[in-house]
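hiii so my PI (J.) wants the whole complex modelled not just the main chain, which honestly fair. so below is everything: two entries, each one labled with what it is. i double checked the lines twice but i was tired so who knows lol
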Amino acid sequence: MRRKEAVTAILCLLPAAFLGGVLIFYPILRTLELAFFHMDPVGRPTGFAGWTNFTNLLKDPLFGRVVFNTLIWTVGVVTVTMVLGMAVALLLNSRPPGYRIARLLLLLPWASSLTISAITWRWMLNGQYGAINQLLHSLHLMPTTAQPEWLALPRPAFEWIIVVGIWVSVPFTAIVLQAGLQSIPSDIHEAGWLDGASGWKHLRHLTLPMMKSVVVTVALLNTIYVFNSFPIIWIMTRGGPMDQTHIMITYLYKQAFTLSEYSSAGAIATLTFIILLVISLIILRLSFGRGSLASGDERA
Amino acid sequence: MKRRPAPLTVLLTALVVLVAAISVAPFLVMIITSLKASSAIFSSHPQWLPSPVRWDNYLRAFRETPLTDYIENSLIISGGATLLNILAAAPAAYALSRLQFGGKKWILQAVLVTQMFSPVVLVLALYHLISVLNLTDSLWSLILTDGTFSLAFSIWLLTSYFNAIPVEMDEAARLDGCTRIGVFRRVLMPLARPGLAVTALFAFIYAWNEFVFALTFIATPDRNPLTVGLFDFVGRYEVQWNLLMAASVIAVVPVILIFMFIERHLVEGLTAGAVR
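here's the output for the full assembly
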């Protein structure tokens, strides 16, 4: 009987396991092979490379910039997104007039594809005819003679990319956090108000601790999405100008498909996965391990 | 509950309006641009609202660009990927929800780990695999990859839907002489129909919005789905922003409508494990 059940289970899992095995796990192994072997131009291994492909990355003068950008992009977008997302969630949860419409409109950036959002932002940032400059002109924040081409210079380009990253991430964050807020039983809120806890104290000692697991989950998902994000940067700047707005993921794509540097791409891919794994473990440990920031017993 | 003072209500309302405005602004720009004449877009006296309103831009987008091909490709890819996704995810979720077997925990963890891989990290290795399988430039390459990369979330979502159906239902059917597969087909699948719908729509949107696989595996412009097709516009039809934005509106509207319909269920699926 038991045995028959296990056989049924294996049969049920087979299609998913087959697809995942061929299209996810095999490519993982193949990526490791690319990273640790020398490759000929068609991508066949010609000999063990050890760590050479990784040490070559350190010799690449651009790679430092790429890693630095990845750090700024991930930390910047995730931090601002979490703060704004929580603010919007609390705002919606206080149910001011019009909050239902706002919540519905908030879904737009989440639902539409990153591709189309990024194309639209690229058009809005057009120097001569874009809506951003038009807005700055009509608010008199900028003289009409100034028509900055935002995406043509590395620094403003990267700053705008971060803005777009935040714009696409906040809706998901706010809506999931709001769902978390709604799941807090209302008698707990009322008990808090009766105890005289108000505003910030209420948030700090009641709401946030109860929300901890939702906040951690959302932060973790955001970190993975943002770190792995490709379309926004590829569509807005393709990593340019002068390769100054690349993050590891876009740089990996360029190495693989523009330069055909398979080994270098494999090494970056391996590195990104290790980094992501470490970040995830740190976030989980910080949140659920000892010495946790928001643990209920800690009182400031 | 305490009553909220009036000035605070005004402030909160203002903030809500601000949030709504920032969310919607790029979509307004999209719609407004799509209705402008080319001369109005590239004018030294920029206008906020289109006048005259050029509805025919939408017809021109169909006539002057391969939009019809893109839509057709997107529908084939997303439809195929969704079917593949559900056919693989539903039995897997049934096993994880209802059957006892060793290594279940291990499998659940493996499913979660696959979620962490960006498609971009694996796209080079996948590109080699797709070439070996002779699927380069074929819509099959995208049906297979899109259907598989959304599998983990689908399995997760469906397992929670199956878990919500009382086991007593299975037991009653078993007593009536149903086999396990019979229970799955005659009891769980019909009862989980709303969950299946949500999961299918999620898989559909995933494939509809997918970018990097299409960018990599498809070489012939006419075989592109909407995402990469529209991105191609930016290079090829740089000047015709009104047509590009009209095409974007056409691409984005159905997905937004579907999304508004399933969003609550997705959020429930995401928070189900987290809220305790």
